[in-house]
Amino acid sequence: MNNTPPYEKLTLLDNFGHSLRSPAYLFQPAETEEIGQALKLAKQHGLTITLRGAGRSYNDAALNGGGIVLDLRQVNRILAWDPATGLLRAEPGVTLEHLWHTVLPDGWWPPVVSGTMFTTLGGCLGMNIHGKNNFRMGTLGEHVLEFTILLPTGAEVTCSPKKNGDLFRACIGGMGMLGIFTSITLQMKKMASGLLEVHAFPVRSLEEHLEALLDGAPQHDYIVGWLDATARGKGLGRGQIHTADYLHEGDGCQVRNHFGCQVRNHFDPDPKKTLTVAYQTLPAKLFGVFPKSIIHYFMAPFMNNPGAWAVNTAKYVMGLRESYYNQPHAAFHFLLDYVPDWELAYGRNGLIQYQSFILKETAREAWTEMLELSQRRGLPSYLGVTKRHRPDNFLLTHAVDGYSLALDFKVTSGNRSKMAQMLQDFDRITLEAGGRFYFAKNSETTAETAIRFLGEEAVAKFRSLKKRCDPHHLLESDLYRRVFG
Length: 485
Hints:
Largest sheet: 8 strands, antiparallel
Number of helices: 16
Distance between the termini: 31 Å
CATH class of the domain at 78-190: Alpha Beta
Strand content: 15-25%
Number of strands: 23
Strand order of the largest sheet: 19-12-14-13-21-22-20-23
């Protein structure tokens, strides 16, 4: 990497939803040593640096208009793996796909995963991802034993819950704005089977939806809800709940329905087969014939209000009958990977995903107001996903003792300003309900909103650490400037 202005590196980058774009100087280091060179170059030319993993954030977290973007996907070595203890040490560019491919044959699985396997480990920790088991296992950061981080000052620091604990709790979930992960040590979870026992059942209203999540979470290893955001009246918030439980070799697995009654006793007869990468790999073709790579073209005609209503209604009707089935871990967790490039179906202006985290006591009222508001304004969400959550002690946490609701909205040239205003109204509703936000999703959160949900004390602590770790403010992103001013 030379010391001349990197004009030849200027690239137009966008977010995962293709709704935001900005030009930046793109660097793709292959080794951690090159990261330090990029920091020196940025300081020399008065540029800022943003970190980018797989570019899977729905907002501007990996964008840096006019600055440098470091794409860390090539810094992706598994540095150590111990199948006896389940401890793994890896570089930040390792994807969840690489992670589970490494540990699954030895009978392990990542403790927390996102809805796609293509996110990087550094990106996952920078946002402190949650999964369908947040109520039980917490965020990914809770399973990190330690990490090393390169500060913009040039110092490399090792952090754990007990060593440099303040930096540990701030870097995880810190948007990559304090330093750059160079190695991460994680505890994997032991698996006796590559299968999960899945139970799917309908819920007919938002009240029933939230009750099913609340009552079902303690009984299961995973729980997630699909919500029909186009439904109105008594059907507002209707949808389907999926629970999942680990199978155990030989000794059976007691599976209970959402009323707590035992309905099945099941085990995996061939764990050697199900704990293979080949068994878990998602098929490239639908029904073994139709290439999934072109499905998004067939989805596009339904990405409008009437089409979304028809698809959601059909999905709800088809899910009215309860079902039980075994499903591989990868198939259950990585639903976003079933259809490659599915986000392209939303069109040239892309999509925005809005996610709110609200206390269990106030969620029903708040989400009723949001869903009804979006319908009145002719901007219904085309996809809704719900989860059950628990609090954690990270500095910039999004976690609450309650639920999350993620809503996907199509952006057009005609509705962008109207959409922005509606999402600002959603922020007001969320804050009034004591809710919080997730920095990997929402693209309209303001600095005032960030201070209100994080609290002035947390923001002051983060600013103090920023001054200590990055005194020249080399690490900045479009997201950071938006929410921290």
